[in-house]
């Protein structure tokens, strides 16, 4: 996208803290999850944080996060509304998406999508990797 929006951060973390002054902190940034349990199914809880600067983008859009399983299967898209009200191009928004996914062992890719429903258009902004590793617990 030539005029924006522009990504300032795209990451996974354990949780996000937001102070009274609006400043956010991503706690325990991860790109690898180790699941410690005896057997599948595995439920992964992780938070995605995507921060954008508007550039020349103005109006209401959606930000999408589309997971792709290690098998190549594309999973349903998580969406969040984004509103850029104009003004200076350095204004921005941060989208925090707490995710709970049933996962398998392997490498997941999450496509970050910029979605403009008015124009029936979506664009890939970046991809975020997340590796899931299974560490079985010893038999009781």
> What is the spatial order of strands in the main beta sheet?
3-9-8-5-6
Strand/helix succession: EEEEEEEEE
The strand count comes to 9
**Helix segment tally:** 0
Catalogue the unreliable spans.
none
Walk me through the topology.
Blueprint (H helix, E strand, L loop, with lengths): L5 E13 L5 E7 L1 E5 L5 E12 L5 E10 L9 E7 L7 E12 L2 E11 L4 E15 L5
Parallel strand pairs: 3-9
Antiparallel strand pairs: 1-2, 1-4, 4-7, 5-6, 5-8, 8-9
Describe the structure.
With 140 residues, the protein is mostly beta strands. Helix content is 0%, strand content 66%. The radius of gyration is 17 Å and the shape is globular. The protein has no helices and nine strands. The strands form two sheets. It has a five-stranded mixed sheet with strand order 3-9-8-5-6, with no helix packed on it. It has a four-stranded antiparallel sheet with strand order 2-1-4-7, with no helix packed on it.
């Amino acid at each position: 996208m030539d005029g924006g929006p522009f990504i300032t951060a795209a990451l996974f973390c354990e949780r996000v803290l937001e102070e009274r002054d609006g400043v956010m902190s991503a706690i325990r940034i991860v790109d690898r999850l180790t699941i410690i349990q005896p057997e599948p199914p595995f439920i992964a809880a992780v938070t995605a944080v995507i921060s954008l600067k508007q550039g020349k983008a103005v109006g209401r859009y959606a930000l999408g996060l589309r997971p792709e399983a290690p098998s190549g299967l594309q999973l349903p898209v998580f969406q969040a509304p984004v509103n850029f009200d104009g003004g200076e191009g350095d204004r921005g928004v941060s989208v925090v998406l707490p995710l709970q996914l049933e996962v398998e062992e392997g490498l997941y890719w999450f496509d970050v999508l910029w979605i403009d429903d008015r124009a029936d258009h979506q664009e890939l902004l970046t991809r975020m990797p997340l590796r899931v590793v299974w560490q079985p617990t010893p038999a009781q």
